[in-house]
C-alpha cells in the first residue's frame, strides 16, 4: 500500500469536520440500546464510506474518522474494536472481527511527530481476526485468512492461511476449496 503523509500542523477543515461528526455519532451509538432502531440508524449514519445490511458493529466502538471505514456485507465487529482511520479501512464481505481488535492505518513519523504516515488496511472476504488482534498500517489480510488471538499483523497475510504471534507468522495453511460461496 502506498504511504501518504498528513501534517497535523496544517489545518484541514474537512478532516476536522469529519472527526467531530464521528465523535458525536459514536457518543450516541455507544450509549444506545443495541436492539433499538436508533442503534441501527446510527450505524448507517456513522459509516458513510459504506455499510451493508446484515452487517453488525457491537458497541463500544472507536474510530477517529468513520467516513474512511468501508464495511461489506455480513460483517460482524465485536465490542472494543478501535480503528485509527486516518487512512482507509476496507472490510470486505463475511469478515469476522473479534473482541478488542485494533486496526491502525497511521503512525507518527519517527523524526517529525506532528506528521502522520498513513497506509490503508484491507481485510479481505471471509477473513477472521481473533480477540485482541492488532493490524498495522498497510497490511492486507487475505481472503479466508485467520489472524490468531493476541497476534500483531505487521505484514500482509496470505489468503487461506492461519497466522499467530507477535509478529504474526504462518502456522497453518487452509484448504481454500472448502469455503462456501454465499
Automatic annotation (TrEMBL):
<keyword id="KW-0808">Transferase</keyword>
<keyword id="KW-0012">Acyltransferase</keyword>
<protein>
    <submittedName>
        <fullName>Acyltransferase</fullName>
    </submittedName>
</protein>
<comment type="similarity">
    <text>Belongs to the transferase hexapeptide repeat family.</text>
</comment>
<dbReference type="Pfam" id="PF00132">
    <property type="entry name" value="Hexapep"/>
</dbReference>
<dbReference type="GO" id="GO:0016746">
    <property type="term" value="F:acyltransferase activity"/>
</dbReference>
<dbReference type="InterPro" id="IPR001451">
    <property type="entry name" value="Hexapep"/>
</dbReference>
<dbReference type="InterPro" id="IPR011004">
    <property type="entry name" value="Trimer_LpxA-like_sf"/>
</dbReference>
<dbReference type="InterPro" id="IPR051159">
    <property type="entry name" value="Hexapeptide_acetyltransf"/>
</dbReference>
<feature type="region of interest" description="Disordered">
    <location>
        <begin position="1"/>
        <end position="21"/>
    </location>
</feature>
Amino acid at each position: 500500500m502506498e504511504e501518504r503523509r498528513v501534517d497535523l500542523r496544517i489545518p484541514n477543515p474537512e478532516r476536522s469536520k469529519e472527526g467531530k461528526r464521528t465523535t458525536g455519532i459514536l457518543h450516541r451509538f455507544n450509549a444506545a440500546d443495541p436492539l433499538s432502531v436508533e442503534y441501527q440508524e446510527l450505524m448507517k449514519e456513522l459509516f458513510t464510506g459504506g455499510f451493508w445490511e446484515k452487517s453488525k458493529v457491537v458497541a463500544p466502538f472507536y474510530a477517529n474518522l468513520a467516513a474512511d471505514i468501508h464495511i461489506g456485507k455480513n460483517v460482524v465487529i465485536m465490542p472494543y474494536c478501535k480503528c485509527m482511520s486516518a487512512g482507509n479501512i476496507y472490510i470486505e464481505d463475511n469478515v469476522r472481527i473479534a473482541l478488542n481488535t485494533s486496526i491502525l492505518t497511521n503512525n507518527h513519523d519517527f523524526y517529525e511527530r506532528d506528521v502522520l504516515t498513513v497506509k490503508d488496511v484491507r481485510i479481505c472476504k471471509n477473513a477472521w481476526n481473533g480477540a485482541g488482534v492488532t493490524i498495522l498500517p498497510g497490511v492486507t489480510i487475505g481472503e479466508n485468512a485467520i489472524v490468531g488471538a493476541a497476534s500483531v499483523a505487521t505484514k500482509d497475510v496470505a489468503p487461506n492461511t492461519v497466522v499467530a504471534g507477535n509478529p504474526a507468522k504462518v502456522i497453518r495453511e487452509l484448504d481454500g476449496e472448502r469455503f462456501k460461496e454465499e
